[in-house]
Write a structure and sequence with these properties.
Elements (H helix, E strand, L loop, with lengths): L6 H21 L3 H10 L5 H15 L2 E3 L2 E3 L5 H7 L2 E7 L4 H18 L7 E5 L4 H6 L7 E6 L2 E4 L6 H12 L3 E3 L3 H10 L2 E6 L5 H10 L6 E5 L2 H7 L6 E6 L5 E3 L6 H11 L5 E2 L2 H9 L4 E6 L3 H17 L4 E6 L3 H10 L8 E8 L2 E6 L6 H12 L21 E2 L5 H5 L5 E7 L4 H16 L6 E7 L15 E6 L2 E7 L6 H10 L9 H16 L6 H6 L1
Parallel strand pairs: 2-4, 3-4, 7-9, 8-9, 12-14, 13-14, 17-19, 18-19
Antiparallel strand pairs: 1-2, 3-5, 5-6, 8-10, 10-11, 13-15, 15-16, 18-20, 20-21
Helix pairs in contact: 5-7, 9-11, 13-15, 18-19
């Protein structure tokens, strides 16, 4: 019901309301939303109301799955125009990481959709909407981008419901919120794994420093209490205090340093994580996302595993703050993935491993001695002083290796790839990689057509099961050429993944492709003619050589 002060106004708006109700009936537009528009724009003409309704109709046209908007190339820009803030996941249907993210993403979408200031979450199938994938330079899955007034920024938060929600709220709301009752304080502490509260005076220098620091952490929630009675219930001092509440280790930490941004930040970084982190998405993001050294215990749920865990926890109190310490049950989801990555099977558990990031490479080290607290501490000290030798995983050398594409493993890499008399092209692949599977018949054909040339070797290595010192593989497939006489400077292949593309690449490197089989010659000629038609004059030499 709307009430007005005079009859004339009532008549005018009654006509508008009746027209709007008809619009609701005829178009199916949400009546509650219509009411909100009428209230907000009561002094506007009916045409403005209808224009707004037309905009709302566009918004409702987006397909939706489990509270997540499904965007296509045809609707993507409309969504960016419609929403000031929107988080978009670019995914591939076959991607395991994407499947794992799906339920967390949907739960976060539901919470944010129903919040006081709704923010939509959306997704794009990048394998179908290839134009969008190219437009935003999507290199892997899932890739999440957060759009603010159409401008994208990289999403670098966690992959759980809570982490997604906290990250978005940090980007769209004040970084610290006031708590005005004891109940609000208790709820804030109980609802969060880590909760940081400032107790002090509004407008104080201490609060200003605290507020500035709160903007720097996307995965931690901050609040403040100015009420003196509440503050007295929570802390013993009348001076400004910061308390970090957490649901692990000692339960809470009180800040005792100087109120500078540097010291507050260092206090939070030192206490926001468990001393021994379970290897979950947050731990993986912290270690691999930030390239931080880490010490792992991989163990089974047996007596030996529990004994090793106790030793790790005892050592952790000494090593705290020096290196990230994490534990993983080898049969659990991410624990199994970590074990595969490091190169550990169940027969080797329990085991202590350490990883360190050096430029684009990752070095791995193994504790060879018995797992005791003393040996773990000494293991870390030896790592710090440079006494440890890295280990590299390898499959066994195949009994036969007479196929056109040679099999390379860690143990025979030097013999095959670093042979100074050979030009060796190596594909580093993953068995689950779709692009690698698509490449396989092309790569096999290339190898068959060059099999007569004993100076050229076409090879492949499963990079998930084998490692080589100094060789960094960031994605699949990665293809590198080790040219004869120049084994210290492998050349990355970035051309077209076609037989013609590989031939052109090898020719460009001026390698020993002297005798070429007829199928390969025809492929070269076809490619050269194609290039000439496109007026790529740099390929005339290739045409002449053919």
């Amino acid at each position: 019901f709307f009430f007005f002060n005079d009859t004339a106004t009532t008549e005018i708006y009654t006509e508008q309301i009746v027209g709007s109700v008809r619009c609701v009936q005829e178009t199916g537009i949400n009546a509650e939303y219509m009411g909100k528009i009428l209230i907000e724009y009561m002094n506007s003409k009916i045409c403005l109301v209808l224009a707004l309704l037309a905009t709302y109709t566009i918004a409702t046209d987006f397909a939706e799955e489990d509270d997540v908007l499904v965007l296509k190339d045809s609707t993507f820009d409309e969504a960016l125009s419609q929403f000031e803030y929107i988080l978009v996941e670019f995914y591939a249907p076959w991607c395991g990481h994407c499947k794992k993210l799906t339920p967390e993403y949907s739960r976060a979408a539901k919470v944010l959709k129903e919040s006081e200031n709704p923010i939509p979450l959306a997704k794009v199938d990048a394998t179908v909407e290839t134009a969008l994938a190219q437009r935003f330079e999507i290199q892997g899955y899932p890739t999440l981008k957060f759009f603010i007034n159409k401008e994208p920024i990289e999403y670098n938060g966690g992959r759980t419901e809570t982490e997604i929600i906290n990250w978005i709220r940090k980007k769209t709301q004040p970084s610290t919120t006031e708590l005005t009752s004891q109940e609000a304080v208790d709820k804030f502490i109980n609802d969060n794994q880590v909760a940081i509260v400032f107790y002090g005076e509004a407008g104080s220098a201490e609060f200003n420093e605290f507020s500035s620091v709160s903007k720097a952490f996307d995965d931690v929630v901050f609040s403040h209490v100015f009420n003196g009675d509440i503050r007295n219930n929570q802390v013993s001092s009348t001076e400004a205090r910061i308390v970090l509440y957490k649901k692990f280790d000692e339960g809470k930490n009180e800040f005792s340093g100087s109120f500078t941004q540097e010291e507050i930040k260092a206090f939070i970084e030192a206490n926001q994580f468990p001393t021994v982190m379970p290897f979950d998405q947050k731990a993986a993001q912290r270690i691999f996302g930030e390239s931080l050294p880490a010490l792992f215990l991989l163990y089974g749920e047996d007596e030996q595993g529990q004994s090793a865990l106790e030793a790790l926890q005892n050592a952790a109190s000494t090593l705290r703050g020096q290196i990230i310490i994490s534990k993983a049950v080898i049969t659990d989801g991410l624990g199994k993935r970590l074990a595969d990555y490091i190169g550990v099977d169940e027969k080797q558990t329990p085991t202590i491993r350490l990883i360190n990031f050096v430029s684009d490479d990752i070095r791995k080290f193994t504790l060879e001695n018995q797992i005791t607290a003393e040996n773990i501490i000494q293991f870390y000290e030896d790592f710090k002083s440079g006494k440890l030798q890295p280990v590299f995983k390898s499959e066994e050398i195949p009994e036969s290796n007479d196929e056109p594409v040679k099999i390379v493993v860690g143990k025979n890499f030097n013999d095959i790839v670093l042979d100074p008399t050979k030009d060796v092209l190596v594909e580093f692949y993953a068995p689950w990689c779709g692009h690698c599977k698509s490449l396989a018949p092309i790569y096999d054909s290339l190898a068959k057509n060059l099999a007569h040339n004993h100076n050229v070797v076409i090879a492949k290595m499963d990079a998930t099961a084998n490692e080589v010192e100094g060789v960094s593989v960031q994605g699949f497939p990665t293809i590198k050429l080790w040219a004869a006489g120049n084994k210290n400077a492998p050349i990355d292949f970035n051309g077209e993944r076609t037989e013609e593309g590989f031939i052109a690449f090898l020719k460009e490197q001026q390698l020993s492709l002297i005798h070429i089989s007829e199928p390969t010659r025809q492929a070269e000629i076809s490619y050269a003619v194609f290039c000439l038609k496109k007026k790529k004059n740099k390929n005339r030499n290739l045409m002449q050589s053919c």
